[in-house]
Amino acid sequence: MRFKRTGAIFMALLLVIPTHLVSAAKQEEKSQSEGSYSEKSEVVYATLEANGDQKEMYVVNHFSIDKSGKIIDYGPYTSVENLTNLTEMKLNDHQVGFTATEDPFYYQGNLEGRSLPWDIDVSYQLNGETLPPEKLLGKDGKLEIHIDTKANEKDNPFFKNYMLQISLPLNSDIYQNIETQNGTIADAGKNKQVAFTVMPEKEESFVVKADVKDLEIESIEITGMPASMPIDTSNADDITNDAKSLSDATKGIDVGIDELNKGITELNQGVVSLHGGSQEYKKGINKLDHGSSELIEGSKSIDESLEKMSQSLGSHSGQMNVSKLQELQKRLTDMANGLKVTENNLADLRDRYSNAYNRLDKSIAAIPAYHISDEEIQELKESDADSKVVDKLVKTYTAARATKDTYSDLKKTFRAVDPTLKDVTGSVHDMRIYLETIVDELDKSLDHTNLDESMKELQQGLNALSSNYKSFHSGLVDYTEGVARLSKSYGELHGGITELTNGTHELKNGVHELHNGTSELAQSTNDLPDQIQTEIDQMTDEYDKSDFDPVSFVSSKNKKVQSVQFVMKTESIKRDKDKKDDQQKEEEKKGFWDRFLDLFR
């Protein structure tokens, strides 16, 4: 917008200025003396094309006069205009001269060929096609507005110390489904407004996307102002102290996870040992079960042989000669030797079973017996703990409890195996001794002449042995059936122990990974307080421009510059009638003083 004051406007201004003006004589007298001012400010207004190209520029200068008289200002203006009174201003070789009273003084200087500190580029894509602004009017489709900001000269003080505020007003009747990144979308009445911020020394690119209908584009407003954001670092100590607490807590967590890792490793080793013992026990009980058929067959053969020998001896006792008795003696000796082998095998099996059972019992006893409620498990799942590790812990706990409960149910059966093996072994031993005694007695009988008497005693002994062995054989059958049931039940228990072993192995790996993560976290947060302090210092250096001393935009000769601001505005893309209507509405809405004060807001 280009502000020009016609004679009529300044006449209106004179109507509201107090009438006690100084006389022409006094004014002439003051014009001869040098005046002074305490501070000066500049507001740079620039009109841009719809694509961001610079079009027009002027500067509104404001002086706070502390002594009336002649003031000299500097700037490469093409023309100047007094905005305070009707006093004539002189422009000569970039030097502006005017006479001011002690009231605030304003004047406008028009510039040509002077570049802004920033290069603003605005481009438009409609339905994926880049179009010039003049071809967008009234179109429908998907619109993208690209805004790029760069430095015209990166060493200029305004680029280094000023921030840009970019604002795009969007009519909700035209724009729908508005999207953007690195910006904010705010309500502005029934419409929307998209805003972006460019920090000092930064070159940025922004994109606004929307669905449009009967497209019109309002002016994009860009304001450049000092990044006067002094950063309060008084709370920096609190932040670094909190960071130290976090660092210490992280170390504590790492130490705790390290202890957990060691505990889980020991648990896994114990469960592996349990699995080894269980595997050994399972092999033993399976071997015992598989050998039961041979044991039964052998026992049955002994039973039948005893019965046959007893019957044979009874029916042929009168006809028995020495050779037949010797043959009987040999068969009984072989039977006794066979029972001795069986006795030794049972004793060996009992020892191996006892060792495996004791190892299994100790391993399962080492599994904790505490109970974790469903509420406690749910609370753990809802905590900040690693969900994968929690799932593995719960799975391992469930498997451990199932193993312990199953073992508890079968423990009586396990305990009964050893006494039964002991009894069976004892019975086999007793029958072996009995057979050996019969063989010895038979051997002695062969040396006596009274063979009939000896044969009667032998028959009685074999009858008693055969009868007792039938009872033993019946018990042995019951025992082997129990072993078969135990072998089947233990297969299920061993499956649970195997699952527990796999679970603790996964848990060990999970906790190990968790420990690696907490160790890395503890290491990375070890110097967190120093890192935060460094970041605070860097942020302070980067964004705190409160120590920036303003300089004039138009001339380095201008002194006592208090502030410089930039107001840039692109041309709208609207129908000519709409533009005129907007200008007329703005004129009707604002009075003279409102429009005059807009220059300095």
From TrEMBL:
Gene3D superfamilies: Methyl-accepting chemotaxis protein. Residues 325-359 form a coiled coil. Keywords: Coiled coil, Signal. Residues 1-24 form the signal peptide. NCBIfam families: xxxLxxG_by_4. This is YhgE/Pip domain-containing protein. It comes from Paludifilum halophilum.
